[in-house]
């Protein structure tokens, strides 16, 4: 995959005025974010700010009550989740959601289901090169993996779909610093070499901002700040709220 | 000893039929976590469809080969039950998905009543007999094995193999297992969850139709009430083997068939159902998830 410039210069993903509810509780109130082709964009914020909800709303589960989500020129706001996935938005969701009673190999096969495993052999080698641990564990059941291994599997499974847009929800959650570094390095490499567009949610704001081209800060279901990774790293408010005294 | 072996074979035959029906219960439970109480009646419906096809075939084509007739009966029964089970899922279960847990259970019981009453009204309340289709028997010493017993066991074994292959080795089976384990994640990976669930109902119904045809061939009679007791037995088989587990359903079916025929042979036939359910209760006390059921706790 190469970085191809969108002819109309429209962003690959455009979320406008999105409001999502859980029952009568409003989790997102008027969120506007966009992700351009070839970018790494991160979304930082405290627990319960609505970051994961935004990720899931993009995938139509739950669907936004108001506002719109446009992906690659198509309005996907009210599209069923599986059809959104077939437009090549892959997500490594909150909690990783590995299929516990399937082997690592089968989990990866599930990722490649969109193409009926057409590119499976080729792609699985890439994933194994990226995360050699998965190769060692390939015939083990997903539920028996450690947290870090599950995280790698979740990202690997999302990559197997050959996504146009990769959504990563807290790829560093609960992982040892060394593995976090390894995963972030892998994301950077995929972005630089293959032009993969990534939208990620992170609590590890420092690492995320360093990695990203642009970032958004979310508070209580609203986007309160945005800018380049560097700008936000230097912003005193962001530093006070998310960086200093926080984990690195 | 011969008597024992004879009863063992009888139990195996009956158990095969229970096993086929039990798979439908267990698959549906596995994938959407509900007991499809109408499944026993789907089995009964399969028997009736086969019976009607048999009557049509024999009245229009004299001297049709029995094997061919059975095959046609089975295929038509599969189509009829699939259509019914698909429709039931579509109208009675799908709208209630995401509602409280008891709701689909209640509609399932409702659908069960609808089906058995529908057959009672349209086909009459009396037992419907058919002439014996397969009469050949083989003698091994004092042990008698009838051809129809062999057919039942072989058909069951073949179907189970095909089924096992589909569930474990094909993309469809993977999608079914993924849907079972995490429906939301399956959708995130592009699996059409509704379609996968519909297919599961169709597969369960097809096996029930085969079981219904076999039951008709074995006992030579169909009744609108056949959905209930054999249905409950098959459900028991699924629970005994561990609900949600395919090999468990078959094992449970075979065990119940064996318990029934051995109890009837050595003790009192009137108490065979008591024996079956007593053993179920006993097993569940010590192994609440059934013999091959998976423990509920999992590392996540």
From TrEMBL, chain A:
One of its GO terms (molecular function) is branched-chain amino acid transmembrane transporter activity. One of its GO terms (biological process) is L-amino acid transport. The keyword Transport applies. It comes from Rhizobium straminoryzae. Keywords: Amino-acid transport, ATP-binding, Nucleotide-binding, Transport. CDD domains: ABC_TM1139_LivF_branched. This is ABC transporter ATP-binding protein. It holds the Pfam family ABC_tran. Residues 13-245 form the ABC transporter domain. The keyword Membrane does not apply. InterPro entries: AAA+_ATPase, ABC_branched_ATPase_LivF/BraG, ABC_transporter-like_ATP-bd, ABC_transporter-like_CS, BCAA_Transport_ATP-bd_LivF, P-loop_NTPase. Belongs to the ABC transporter superfamily.
From TrEMBL, chain B:
The keyword Transcription regulation does not apply. GO terms for molecular function: L-isoleucine transmembrane transporter activity; L-leucine transmembrane transporter activity; L-phenylalanine transmembrane transporter activity; L-valine transmembrane transporter activity. GO terms for biological process: D-alanine transmembrane transport; L-alanine transport; L-isoleucine import across plasma membrane. Keywords: Amino-acid transport, Cell inner membrane, Cell membrane, Membrane, Transmembrane, Transmembrane helix, Transport. InterPro entries: ABC_transp_permease, BCAA_transport_permease. It comes from the Bacteria. It is found in: Cell membrane. Its main location: membrane. It is a multi-pass membrane protein. The chain crosses the membrane at residues 12-35, 42-62, 68-88, 100-119, 150-167, 197-218, 238-259, 266-286. The keyword Transcription does not apply. One of its GO terms (cellular component) is plasma membrane. Belongs to the binding-protein-dependent transport system permease family. LivHM subfamily. This is Branched-chain amino acid ABC transporter permease LivH. It comes from Rhizobium straminoryzae.
């Amino acid at each position: 995959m190469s970085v191809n410039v969108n002819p109309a210069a429209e962003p690959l993903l455009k979320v406008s005025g999105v409001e999502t509810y859980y029952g009568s509780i409003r989790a997102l109130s008027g969120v506007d974010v966009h992700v351009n082709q070839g970018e790494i964009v991160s979304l930082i914020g405290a627990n319960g700010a609505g970051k994961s909800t935004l990720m899931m709303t993009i995938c139509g589960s739950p669907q936004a009550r108001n506002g719109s989500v446009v992906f690659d020129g198509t309005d996907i706001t009210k599209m069923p989740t599986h059809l959104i996935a077939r437009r090549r938005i892959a997500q490594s969701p909150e909690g990783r959601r590995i299929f516990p009673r399937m082997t690592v190999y089968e989990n990866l096969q599930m990722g490649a289901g969109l193409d009926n495993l057409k590119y499976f052999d080729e792609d699985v080698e890439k994933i194994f090169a990226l995360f050699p641990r998965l190769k060692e564990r390939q015939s083990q059941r997903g539920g028996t993996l450690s947290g870090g291994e599950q995280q790698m599997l979740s990202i690997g499974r999302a990559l197997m779909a050959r996504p146009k847009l990769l959504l990563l929800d807290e790829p560093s959650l609960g992982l040892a610093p060394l593995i976090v570094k390894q995963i972030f390095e892998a994301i950077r490499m995929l972005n630089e070499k293959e032009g993969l567009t990534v939208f990620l949610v992170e609590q590890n704001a420092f690492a995320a901002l360093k990695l990203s081209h642009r970032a958004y800060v979310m508070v209580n279901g609203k986007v309160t700040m945005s800018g380049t990774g560097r700008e936000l790293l230097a912003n005193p408010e962001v530093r006070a709220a998310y960086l200093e005294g926080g984990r690195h | 000893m011969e008597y024992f072996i004879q009863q063992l074979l009888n139990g195996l035959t009956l158990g095969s039929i229970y096993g086929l029906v039990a798979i439908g219960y267990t698959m549906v439970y596995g994938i959407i976590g509900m007991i499809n109480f109408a499944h026993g009646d789907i089995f009964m419906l399969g028997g009736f469809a086969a019976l009607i096809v048999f009557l049509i075939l024999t009245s229009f084509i004299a001297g049709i080969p029995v094997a061919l007739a059975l095959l046609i009966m089975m295929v038509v029964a599969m189509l009829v039950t699939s259509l019914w089970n698909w429709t039931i899922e579509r109208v009675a279960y799908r709208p209630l998905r995401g509602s409280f847990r008891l709701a689909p259970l209640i509609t399932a019981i409702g659908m069960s009543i609808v089906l058995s009453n529908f057959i009672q009204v349209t086909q009459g309340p009396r037992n419907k007999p058919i002439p014996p289709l397969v009469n050949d028997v083989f003698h091994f010493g004092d042990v008698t094995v009838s051809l129809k017993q062999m057919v039942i066991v072989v058909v069951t074994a073949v179907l189970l193999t095909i089924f096992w292959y589909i569930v474990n080795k094909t993309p469809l089976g993977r999608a079914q297992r993924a849907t079972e384990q995490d429906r939301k994640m399956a959708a995130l990976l592009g699996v059409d969850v509704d379609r996968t669930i519909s297919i599961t109902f169709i597969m369960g119904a097809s096996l029930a139709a085969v079981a219904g045809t076999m039951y008709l061939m074995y006992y030579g009679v169909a009744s609108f009430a056949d959905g209930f007791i054999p249905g409950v037995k098959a459900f028991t088989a699924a629970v005994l083997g561990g609900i949600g587990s395919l090999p468990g359903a078959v094992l449970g079916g075979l065990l119940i068939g064996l318990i029934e025929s051995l109890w009837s042979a050595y003790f009192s036939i009137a108490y065979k159902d008591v024996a079956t359910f007593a053993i179920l209760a006993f097993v569940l006390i010590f192994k609440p998830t059934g013999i091959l059921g998976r423990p509920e706790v999992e590392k996540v």
